Amino acid sequence: MSDAIVLASGSPFRRKMLEDAGLEIEVEKPQIDERAVEAAVANSGVGPEDLALILAEAKALEVSQDRPGALVIGTDQTLSLGDEVLHKPRDMEEARRRLLALSGRTHQLNSAVVLMRDGEVLWRHVGVARLTMRELDPGFIGRHLSHVGEKALSSVGAYQIEGEGIQLFETIEGDHFTIVGMPLLPLLAKLREMQAIDG
């Protein structure tokens, strides 16, 4: 259990998740262009779950190349509404339109995690959650976004389920950690199996 565990992510939520679970990790934000990776597989029949895995693997690979011997955790999450993959809103107007589009509908969060060492994928997993928003009044959406502010721009759905965003939902099927950004329980189980953490 002496090898470094490196989280290839700039997400404070993912970092906190692992640290709260008692893991000693290092963090290195990968320098990849996610939209370029996505464009490279566009029109190839890759679904939202596979896209999340491809992005997580690209992040892990970028960091793994600079960290010989380290166990690198790559993660990514896609939000799919039917076959459409949505991205983080660029501004508050796009966040407003995003919430209007999700209102009264069920969308899927696909949270991928990849373990890699020296550029070799050791394990990959995708956790899936299905979330149904209640019917949202446009006036409420405006008031909600005004209250939460720029935080709405930090997630693909324009909400933080761990905060006030919970008020937007009617039903949720899936693991809390998967929704917040990483399928933590399967990851911890794999790290114990690999004897990378005590267990």
TrEMBL record:
Keywords: Cytoplasm, Hydrolase, Nucleotide metabolism. Its EC number is 3.6.1.-. It catalyses: N(7)-methyl-GTP + H2O = N(7)-methyl-GMP + diphosphate + H(+). This is 7-methyl-GTP pyrophosphatase. The record marks F13, Q77, E162 as: Important for substrate specificity. The keyword GTP-binding does not apply. Belongs to the Maf family. YceF subfamily. The keyword Cytoplasm applies. It comes from Neoaquamicrobium sediminum. Its main location: cytoplasm. PANTHER family: BIFUNCTIONAL DTTP/UTP PYROPHOSPHATASE/METHYLTRANSFERASE PROTEIN-RELATED, BIFUNCTIONAL DTTP_UTP PYROPHOSPHATASE_METHYLTRANSFERASE PROTEIN-RELATED. Pfam families: Maf (PF02545). It is found in: Cytoplasm.
